[in-house]
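Recap for those who missed Tuesday's class. We walked through two folding examples back to back. For each one, the amino acid string is listed first and its predicted structure tokens come directly after. Nothing is annotated here on purpose, so try labeling regions yourself before you check the end of the notes.
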Amino acid sequence: MSSSPLRVAVVCMSNMNRSMEAHGILRKNGFRVRSFGTGSRVRLPGSAPNLPVVYDFSTTYKQMYNDLLRKDRQRYTKNGILHILGRNERIKPRPERFQECSDAFDVIFTCGESVYDRVVEDLCAREQETFQPVHVINVDIQDTLEDATLGALLICELCQCLQQADDMEDSLDKLLLAVEEKRGKSFLHTVCFY
């Protein structure tokens, strides 16, 4: 596997916190990476838990930042959303939906079981053209700044091990099992085909 760079995708619900933190860390470590959300819209914490601020995926991170700055600078500074949007804007212009991407990846990491289910369902519904395998691995990550960083570091560690493996197909199950034993964290894993 080390002869060609690993093609990696990281997916959460809104392409906002968990997938973008991993995107930034993986990119800094030299991986070819893209990040996505699977939701129908981008949802950010609003003035109450049941009142999210909702944007279309076509809205840029800069537009969201300016909108929230105008709405309530103090709230969105305190809860970290402005920080997240600033970081995201330095990585790419806007969030992207996984369902709208036709690129092929070697590994897709999802950040929650419901996201994993959506990614696997979408891949299985696509017409298979090349029959190239893609490994979908769920790394459960809580949607907080600290957990996003810890999860991103774990995803990066997994990618580094896979990049160094002679045969990813043979190494992946052993690697996941070793990390499960070391960290006490279990993974969902399936193989789909393009």
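Example two. Treat it independently of the first, because the proteins are unrelated.
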Amino acid sequence: MELKQRHTNSEEGPNVKVDVQAIKLKRSLGLISGTSIIVGTIIGSGIFISPKGVLQETGSVGLSLIVWTAGGLLSLMGSLSYAELGTLITKSGGEYPYMMEAMGRVVAYLFAWTKIIVLTPSSMAIICLTFAEYFITLFDFCGEPQIPKKIVAALAMSKMLVSNKETFHIAT
């Protein structure tokens, strides 16, 4: 924290010096926490849905473990690449500054709009549907109920939007 002086109008008269503390965020994200955030973002909730499909397609437990290990190594390489990009390009804005540095303003702008309109909403829908699929297993239904799953996913999505309205800039 830094201590700055500012001139202000107060009861003692105009232009009295007042000590004001400037609060700044501390840049402290270590290797473990940074890698964990990036790996968690890259893997997402797909790891909870795909094990059954991987096991069915490979046909054996050993081969499915090899596929999962290869996927984990690929995810690790992606997270380390993002970590290195974050240390080289220290601007805020997620992938936008990286795209701007590598491919120019037009591609970065198109990527940003694609992410806002397509990628982020579809990612949120997949996360909410995954939550709903696991949530409805707590109740005893006959068969595979689609309507309760969609209702739970819609409620989860509305809860995410309400709790993150500052992030999504939703006017209330």
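Answers for example two:
The mean pLDDT is 76.
The beta strands are 2-10, 13-22.
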